[in-house]
Amino acid sequence: MKQRLALVDCNNFFCSCERIFAPSLSGKPVVVLSNNDGCIISRSEEAKALGIPMGAPRHEQEGVIQKHGVKVFSSNYTLYGDMSARVMAILRESALETEVYSIDEAFLKLPGEFGEAEARALRAKVLRWTGIPVCIGMAGTKMLAKLANREAKKRRVETGGVFDLDACEDLEELMERVSCDGLWGVGKRLALRLAGLGIRTAAEFRWADSRQIRKSLGVVGERMWWEMNGVSCLPWEEIPPDRKGVMASRSFGTPLEKLEEVEEALAHHVARASEKLRRFGLRASRIDVFLQTNRFRAGEAQYCPAAGLNLDEPTASTSELMGQARELLHEIYRKGYRYQKTGVSLTGLVRAEAVQGCLDLDGVRKAKREVDAIVDRINQRLGDRKNPVITRGSMGSKHSPQRWRMKSGQRSPAYTTSWRDLPVAVLGGGSRRV
DNA sequence: TCTGGGGTCCTAGGACCC
DNA sequence: TCTGGGGTCCTAGGACCC
Hints:
This protein folds into 3 domains: 1-166, 2-Layer Sandwich (Alpha-Beta Plaits); 245-348, 2-Layer Sandwich (Dna Ligase, domain 1), CATH 3.30.1490.100; 358-392. The protein is built from 16 helices and 13 strands. The protein has helices at residues 13-20, 45-49, 58-68, 77-94, 116-130, 142-154, 156-159, 171-177, 188-196, 202-207, 210-228, 259-280, 318-332, 352-356, 361-382, 401-408, and strands spanning 5-10, 30-33, 40-43, 71-74, 97-102, 105-109, 134-139, 162-164, 245-256, 282-293, 306-315, 339-347, 350-351. The chain is globular, with a radius of gyration of 26 Å. The protein starts with a strand and ends in a 26-residue tail after the last helix. It binds a DNA duplex through helix 3, helix 9, helix 11, strand 9 and helix 15.
């Protein structure tokens, strides 16, 4: 039986959340701002209609905001997280399995009988119970479900916010209408590269030679090609894997020049990041610190240094990390610049409980050296350099697709296209945690 | 004329997503 | 004057090892 997926996506999520608590704003233009109130990161339909672009600096839109009385909110992530959890809980009731993809999106594995009527009912239920409007796209793969969702959103009035690609009668016509940069995972750069191959629409992408796509866009591109052709090869992650890193950074309201001031900001970031670490039960084995001047000031001297350090022991201790962060900052700080931003990034995360019994890497290396020495001795005694009796090897490496490709001059098979286990990676990354 | 080759670990940078 | 913050994955290349 063919797999059926849905992508459920909340409409203008942050704005929709704000509106729940201010019903008088229904039908009025609303925007939500980024952390420092710097950029517009969510717009209601009415705000979009006024031509306010996504990600625009607030100050550039001040005129429109004033003129049309656009209601402006600072972001409130506690609220959004809470609303998200409510929506997800409802979705779980209808799905066989659920993968929460981001704060406002989830993939659903659908039961066989789930069609457009059921999707409409689900949509109505979410709206009735949470006040959040959603759109639902259905198809056989994640990429296609994304595309279906886009269609549902774009033609909301006509589709009722629900679109089933498998039930679409003029699929080819639809694919011809969608340009490549509208595909999930194809950004500006890749679209440009595709255009260079004469591939401009989803239809052309689907019909393209997969080898050509592979050559030009790599394994990521080939995965997209399969997905677009109905072959699912992105992983299903019902349980989100542990984070690989945490970061804390902020822009300053006004540029800072003194080391002590930057230090203070950085200390705050280290505290936030290490707190996060502890909350997840993780410890970091590497810390990176960075500084940035104002990149928008073309006339000013720019300086964007960074420094990092691998820690001896994984830690989540604020004070330990703080000490290291300060030293790193001193390494990179230079007088005479106007700094606009600083931040810290903690990576190489391991589970706190695993730290105790963690693999003794040095021990393993030592053991390997010992074995190698034995192998050498045997070879010296029994063979010669050119024809060793025993050869050293390491598991799998010889057969890693990368190496294999170099040797054979061929592509590796589609499903083992990367030296990492495939299919593993998610398209183009993405912030996936709520 | 050839100049070892297989392997690990790490970092930086590119691309994309929400 | 103001110009977000937090993620993921892939690839290339250097250092090092035997």
